[in-house]
Amino acid sequence: MDSLLFARGLVAELAAEHSHGHSVANASASSSVAVSAAVRSATASAVSASATAARGGGGSSHGNTAVARDFQSAFGLAVVVYLLFVTPLIAGWAANGRWKGGWILCSSATRKVPAVAAGEKDGKTKTEKVEGAVVMDVFDRPAPLRVIPASAVTAHLRTLHNRVLVRPFPLFHLTLGQTALCIIYEAVVVFCLFFHCLDHLSNFNRTAAVSVAQLPALFLFAGKNSALSILGKSYEKMNYLHRVAGRLVILLGVLHALFFLLKHPFDLREPIQQSGMVCVIACGLLLIPSISYVRNSFYQFFLLSHIAGWIAFLVGLYHHAPEFTTPYLVFCLVVYALDVVIRVGKTRMGKGSIVALPANTLMIQSHTISSGFRAGQHVWLRTWKTGGWWRGWETHPFTIASAPDGASPLQGSHRLTLLVKAVGDYTKALHKGPEVSLVGSSATAIGPYGGPMLTDFADAQSVILIAGGSGITFCAPLLEELVYLATVGKTSVRSVTLVWTMRDAELIESYQAFLSGLVDDAREKTALEVKISLHVTRAPLNLPPENRVNATIPSPISHSTLSLARPSIATILHDVAVDAVCSAARMNLIRGGGIVVGACGPRKLIQEVRRAAGQVPVAKAVAVRVAVSCMP
């Protein structure tokens, strides 16, 4: 029995030891498996992180996407707020019916203005005898529309606008208002960059997200037929915003590449880095030719490099991060496609005449286009056989120097007319080309674009038109249209003052008959008072030395003055404001109907006009509400 019990105990001990050995072995094996699994998991995580970084990751992609959406929301909100401010102007523009013109060039039968013989105007005449003078006929003239006084709120806001926002900013050739708008835009971009993200080296994707988020705004600011035109600003008035947005897009894109390379090795074997390098090169191709000197001196090179650059940038961007960028790229391509389609619809091809005029000026007149544009608008011109075959593909903007058919009091043809001053390579080649003084030259006009937009000169009480040199092509059609509207009683304007500054007096020859005819028509057929003040900064050589400074010489245009001195815009604006206040008082109005100032010319002249508008005394400015429309 004892031996049996001993044997059982020995077996139990051996079994226990064997079981303990298996447990230790199993535990060791389990530990080894766990370590291997951890190593594999860590390796997989590292590989996944590396792949994510290679795909442009870094930081919270959800947060970056949300920030991009927030930028879009802020931009849309800004557009809506601005639209609310200009809604009264849009309503007035739609109410007067003149919104129907200025969209697309078209042909119409040439309207002939019948000559009005003495005693036959509207069949209404009466005879008056003035003592000591001969008997003469006095014609009934169409009464101007009633002057509608500006509201107190509108007058004060406009005065504040002129004194603060319209004043030129000395550094960037912008107004204070434009500079403030750029600063606000940049502040929104900076806020989006640093919202819940202070470490852009780790979250290098934030700069890329904010860069891509600006692409829709960038394309909307650039398009000639952009939907933003509903805001009352044509493409050339929004170009400074396009430049600001474009530089920020490029800057943030380059920073994204720099932050990525500081964290990861540069390896062009990776497709993601290949597409990123394409985007960086495209940014350089877009930025360097956009420098103002290069752009102004070599515009065609700038244009071609810009087109090639943005195409390469969008293609590279799509291959770089298709999941994130596709919605933005689709929007940009739709905006551009619509712009191209509308541009094609605005294109007119046909024959025209190119005639040399004095003062190194060309007159280009279409044989078919006579309407569809408004006074003050411009077209892009392409001439097919001037200056070499490559010139035929260039397009250049020129202001339409004539009012449309049906908006001129003058007799004769009212075809679309351009007056081109030979100052640049293209215009000099055009002036020396074989088609000068020939009829039937082939040309293409694309437009119309620009113009006063929501600023309606015909609804004001007084108008001041200020031209510098060839800027008369903007002011003359406006004067022509105002005189016509006065002949049919469809304007409230009581007086128009045209101030034209030029370097050489021979430039007047191109407009002598035209301006004289308008002045005579205004005096004979309307109650509109037209004043023309000509200023020549370079005295004619045939004048004696003592008469070459601040002298007044006979003017070739009837009922106008010609002086050898620069005009004082502030004095002219002050005098017109005083006259407008007195006129409003005679009409028993609590406030005037407004003064609209239109200006076109060199940058210094435009800046002087803007400063003068802000220098009008507050009492007079509120009393008459001064509005300024400058081109460009």
Automatic annotation (TrEMBL):
GO terms for cellular component: plasma membrane. InterPro entries: FAD-bd_8, FAD-bd_FR_type, Fe3_Rdtase_TM_dom, Fe_red_NAD-bd_6, Ferric/Cupric_Reductase, FNR_nucleotide-bd, Riboflavin_synthase-like_b-brl. This is ferric-chelate reductase (NADPH). It comes from the Eukaryota. Pfam families: FAD_binding_8, Ferric_reduct, NAD_binding_6. The keyword Transport applies. Residues 325-455 form the FAD-binding FR-type domain. Its EC number is 1.16.1.9. SUPFAM superfamilies: Ferredoxin reductase-like, C-terminal NADP-linked domain (SSF52343), Riboflavin synthase domain-like (SSF63380). The chain crosses the membrane at residues 74-95, 171-196, 244-262, 274-294, 301-321, 327-345. Its main location: membrane. It is an enzyme of class 1 (oxidoreductase). CDD domains: NOX_Duox_like_FAD_NADP (cd06186). It catalyses: 2 a Fe(II)-siderophore + NADP(+) + H(+) = 2 a Fe(III)-siderophore + NADPH. Belongs to the ferric reductase (FRE) family. PANTHER family: FERRIC REDUCTASE TRANSMEMBRANE COMPONENT 3-RELATED (PTHR32361:SF9), FERRIC/CUPRIC REDUCTASE TRANSMEMBRANE COMPONENT (PTHR32361). GO terms for molecular function: ferric-chelate reductase (NADPH) activity. It is found in: Cell membrane.
